[in-house]
């Protein structure tokens, strides 16, 4: 045919009429928009209400300017950290994508010459020259040559598809990926050469259509659901507390007969009551929680990058910690992703794993039979060219350091692997005589053998083939691909062959993947392998990886899955472990049905065909070697394609969730204690127990530092022994609530006793009310700091694992130092006066008692294993 291709002018005309070969990409939200959307966070909304009230009080002259300013800073910092962190992660992912896209080129006939162009410059009507290793740049018809194409990126099938020109009058269905004439963007040429005439480009390609489909919004993450629920509960508590304090102060005024005499007096009374009510609201809101989640997500994302995990969407990390069901690929994730030689056997079924284990003469024959009779070549320790089997065999020789013995000087004839004959042949000229080597499907070659070479190099008659048949069947049951290598003097290799060996090759299960699967299963997460491979291979790999272990475990094919209704599938889902011959639609259906059962669903994938399911899942794990469309659809990219890295992502997610729970115990204890103290104080005669400024210092300075302390908690293996937390379960457990209530009641009792109990007051000597309230402020701060040690661990020993989070000790030390500065130098701004050394010791002793008190609670209240 004429391979002149389009002219430059024709290419421009085609681009103008039919579009460019670029994919539409919905741009990520700019930073300013992310910050604005952050104001919809339920915790931020509560803070905004408190800010509005503070502004009103300031305008009425009832609040200092720094009171609303402090709340505003808390809002901006908490929202900004999260937005900036996610923005940076998206930019990092975009940079990786652009770097990858910059390398994508195609060989195109343009103006009568073969030219290398960037894929974006390919247009409809172009003639693209394709060779082994090329990624096809657009959809089109093969018009010349013959190609072997890996279409796994689109259909998940590992078997290579043959693409040849369409004969005159022959028709085919473009949407059928198994047709023999049409090739698709994103697939890879594995063998052969040919010319593709481009029919559609950009979004019109199958690759482009799938890429557009995945750019949709997803549902709320489990943590977002839990925090929204908590925010509603806290807001109700705050508003009820505020209303109660208003009613209480007014009721107290009526009952004591201290009603105001005029309108000014009533206004002053109401303003005082509103001020206390606002104090209650500020007390109730955990300002540090949005800060903590932002810090945690950012810190954990940075740590995970070192473990080959790129968190592209920040919320994907916390969702990973809540997973209850994980659908995972087989190839490259559970397995190594490449074929390797596992074992060799002689005709008498003596097995060996290395060339040096057999006689040198037989080893030399095997090297020729699999190394010279091979389409792949060895270059500087790497394998170039060839199909997957040839690459595996050449890799075996490289590992055995046997490639130096390869010589093609005597090659008389070589026929590469023929899919019809299921073998490749090599004829050498040795000493004036021809010797033919044959390599191919074991079941075909063994039948043509009359002799074999034993491990010592002796030629023996092959009279009994049942042993080889039984061995072959056993290896096939282990998902091995069997390759027989034989030879014969002369050029006729139809029968009378001498068997050199039978080689078992397979895509082996990663050792670390099997260990990681066991860890994930122990964490209560159901793992289901979804693969395009045949059922026998999938089942063998699943058994070796530890997925199929119980009689009740189920393995289905895509066809068997299609026969089930959604209701039938949902009943089988808890026992499902393997889906073989899977189609892209199967993955999306599995995710949908699992989510309808309220599972938190994870999905791994690398191809364009996986993208809809990756997007639909609660968290999508895209493989680093996968397509850009899959990475765009996923929340987390596993850079090394290893299941063990997925296990790490789950552990980090659980660590983050546990850190949030620890912080909630710490901060809600602060808030409940502050609410009770500020509520009961006015009932006992002291309208202002803790000022708004003091509370802001506690909530902002201390909670911000505490967020850093709890955000640095290390990932502990014990988190992987707990069961997944259901999506609808409250983030605050009964055990947490018991710790919060006990700690808050103790802190409240101590603070009230300092202000109202004479026996405690006498410990400080003859002092005024301001001094007592200063001691109250100092004790409150130290007590909640000490309670941080209680909140840090569920173990009775509060120092358990403290060595792995030294920043916690540093932060708590800093908080103690800040308290001293606040009380000693706060003066009029904080409504305090300096304390004597004796008073500090008394305050510390009262505060420290919260630790042994909670240790006693933990000892008497055994932990519930989920």
Share in helix:
40-55%
Task: List segments where confidence is low: pLDDT < 50 over at least 5 consecutive residues.
Answer: none
- Provide the β-strand percentage band: 15-25%
**Global mean pLDDT:** 83
Q: What gross morphology would you assign?
A: elongated
Report on this model:
- The protein is an alpha+beta fold and 866 residues long.
- Helices cover 50% and strands 18% of the residues.
- The protein is built from 30 helices and 26 strands.
- Strands 10, 11, 14, 15, 16, 17, 18, 19 and 20 form a nine-stranded mixed beta sheet that branches. An eight-stranded mixed beta sheet has the order 8-26-25-24-9-21-23-22, sandwiched between helices.
- Helix 8 runs antiparallel to helix 22 (643-684).
- The longest helix has 42 residues, at 643-684.
- It is elongated, with a radius of gyration of 36 Å.
- The two termini are 70 Å apart.
- The mean pLDDT is 83.
Layout of secondary structure:
Elements (H helix, E strand, L loop, with lengths): L7 H11 L12 H8 L3 H18 L6 H37 L2 E6 L2 E6 L8 E4 L8 E12 L1 H4 L5 E3 L18 E2 L4 E13 L5 H8 L8 H34 L7 H22 L3 H18 L3 E3 L2 H7 L4 E4 L6 E11 L5 E2 L7 H13 L4 E3 L2 E3 L3 H12 L11 E8 L4 E8 L2 E9 H5 L2 E5 L5 E3 L4 H12 L3 E9 L7 E13 L1 H12 L3 E5 L4 H11 L8 E4 H5 L3 H7 L3 E5 L3 H13 L4 E5 L5 H6 L2 E5 L4 H6 L2 E3 L4 H42 L7 H20 L22 H23 L1 H4 L7 H24 L13 H20 L1 H4 L6 H12 L1 H11 L6
Parallel strand pairs: 9-21, 9-24, 17-20, 21-23, 22-23, 24-25, 25-26
Antiparallel strand pairs: 1-2, 1-3, 3-7, 4-5, 4-6, 4-7, 8-26, 10-11, 10-20, 12-13, 14-15, 15-16, 16-19, 17-18, 19-20
Helix pairs in contact: 2-4, 3-4, 3-8, 4-9, 4-23, 7-8, 7-22, 8-22, 8-23, 9-10, 9-22, 9-23, 10-22, 15-22, 22-23, 22-24, 22-26, 23-26, 23-27, 24-26, 24-30, 26-27, 26-29, 26-30
């Amino acid at each position: 045919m004429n391979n002149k291709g389009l002219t430059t002018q024709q290419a421009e005309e085609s681009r103008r009429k039919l579009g460019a070969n670029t994919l539409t990409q919905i741009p990520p939200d700019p930073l300013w928009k992310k910050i604005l959307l952050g104001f919809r966070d339920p915790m931020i909304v509560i803070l905004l209400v408190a800010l509005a009230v503070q502004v009103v009080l300031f305008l009425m002259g009832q609040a200092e300017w720094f009171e609303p300013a402090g709340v505003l800073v808390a809002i901006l910092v908490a929202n900004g950290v999260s937005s900036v962190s996610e923005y940076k992660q998206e930019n990092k992912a975009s940079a990786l994508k652009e770097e990858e896209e910059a390398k994508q080129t195609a060989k195109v006939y343009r103006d009568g010459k073969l030219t290398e162009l960037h894929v974006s410059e390919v247009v409809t009507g172009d003639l693209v020259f394709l060779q082994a290793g090329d990624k096809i740049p657009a959809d089109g018809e093969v018009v010349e040559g013959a190609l072997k194409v890996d279409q796994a990126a689109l259909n998940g099938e590992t078997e290579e598809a043959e693409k040849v020109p369409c004969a005159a009058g022959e028709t085919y269905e473009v949407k059928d990926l198994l047709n023999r004439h049409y090739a698709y963007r994103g697939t890879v040429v594995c063998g052969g050469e040919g010319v593709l005439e481009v029919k559609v480009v950009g979004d019109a390609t199958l690759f482009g259509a799938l890429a557009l489909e995945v750019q949709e919004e997803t549902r709320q993450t489990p943590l977002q659901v839990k925090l929204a629920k908590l925010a509603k509960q806290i807001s109700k508590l705050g508003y009820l507390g505020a209303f109660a304090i208003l009613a209480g102060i007014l009721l107290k005024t009526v009952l004591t007969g201290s009603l105001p005499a005029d309108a000014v007096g009533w206004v002053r009374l109401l303003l005082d009551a509103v001020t206390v009510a606002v104090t209650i609201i500020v007390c109730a809101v955990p300002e540090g929680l949005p800060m903590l989640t932002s810090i945690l997500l950012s810190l954990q994302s940075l740590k995970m990058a070192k473990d080959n995990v790129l968190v592209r969407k920040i919320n994907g990390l916390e969702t990973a910690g809540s997973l209850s069901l994980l659908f995972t690929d087989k190839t490259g994730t559970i397995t190594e992703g490449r074929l390797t030689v596992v074992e060799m056997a002689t005709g008498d079924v003596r097995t060996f794993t290395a060339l040096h284990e057999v006689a040198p003469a037989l080893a030399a024959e095997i090297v020729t039979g699999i190394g010279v009779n091979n389409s792949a070549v060895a270059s500087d320790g790497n394998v170039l060219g060839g199909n997957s089997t040839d690459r595996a065999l050449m890799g075996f020789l490289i590992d055995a350091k046997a490639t130096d013995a390869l010589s093609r000087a005597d090659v008389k004839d070589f026929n590469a692997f023929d899919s019809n004959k299921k073998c490749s042949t090599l004829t050498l000229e040795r000493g004036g005589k021809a010797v033919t080597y044959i390599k191919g499907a074991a079941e075909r070659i063994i039948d043509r053998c009359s002799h074999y070479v034993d491990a010592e190099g002796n030629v023996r008659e092959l009279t009994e083939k049942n042993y080889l048949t039984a061995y072959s069947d056993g290896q096939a049951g282990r998902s091995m691909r069997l390759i027989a290598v034989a030879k014969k003097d002369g050029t006729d290799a139809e029968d009378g062959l001498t068997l050199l060996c039978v080689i078992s090759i397979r895509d082996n299960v990663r050792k670390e993947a099997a260990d990681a699967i066991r860890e994930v299963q122990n964490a209560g997460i159901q793992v289901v392998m979804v693969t395009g491979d045949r059922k026998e291979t999938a089942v063998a790999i699943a058994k070796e990886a530890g997925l199929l272990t119980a009689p009740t475990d189920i393995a289905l094919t895509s066809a068997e899955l299609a026969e089930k209704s959604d209701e039938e599938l949902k009943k089988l889902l808890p026992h499902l472990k393997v889906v073989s011959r899977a189609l892209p639609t199967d993955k999306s259906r599995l995710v949908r049905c699992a989510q309808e059962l309220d599972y938190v669903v994870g999905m791994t994938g690398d191809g364009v065909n996986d993208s809809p399911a990756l997007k639909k899942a609660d968290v999508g794990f895209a493989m680093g070697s996968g397509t850009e469309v899959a990475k765009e659809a996923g929340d987390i990219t596993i850079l090394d394609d290893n299941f063990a890295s997925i296990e790490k992502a789950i552990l980090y997610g659980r660590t983050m969730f546990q850190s949030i729970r620890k912080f909630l115990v710490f901060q809600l204890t602060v808030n409940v204690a502050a609410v009770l103290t500020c509520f009961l104080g006015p009932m006992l005669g002291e309208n202002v127990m803790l000022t708004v400024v003091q509370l802001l210092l506690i909530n902002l300075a201390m909670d911000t530092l505490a967020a850093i302390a709890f955000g640095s908690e290390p990932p502990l293996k014990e988190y992987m022994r707990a069961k997944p937390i259901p999506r609808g379960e409250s983030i605050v457990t009964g055990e947490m609530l018991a710790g919060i209530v006990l700690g808050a009641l103790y802190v409240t009792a101590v603070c009230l006793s300092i202000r109202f109990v004479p026996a405690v007051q006498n410990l400080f000597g003859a002092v005024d009310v301001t001094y007592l309230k200063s001691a109250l402020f100092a004790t409150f701060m130290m007590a909640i700091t000490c309670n941080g040690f209680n909140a840090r661990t569920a173990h009775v020993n509060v120092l358990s694992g403290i060595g792995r989070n030294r920043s916690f000790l540093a932060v708590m030390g800093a908080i103690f130092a800040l308290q001293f500065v606040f009380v000693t130098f706060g003066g009029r701004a904080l409504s305090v006066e300096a304390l004597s050394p004796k008073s500090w010791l008394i305050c510390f002793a009262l505060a420290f008692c919260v630790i042994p008190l909670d240790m006693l609670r933990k000892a008497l209240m055994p932990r519930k294993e989920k």
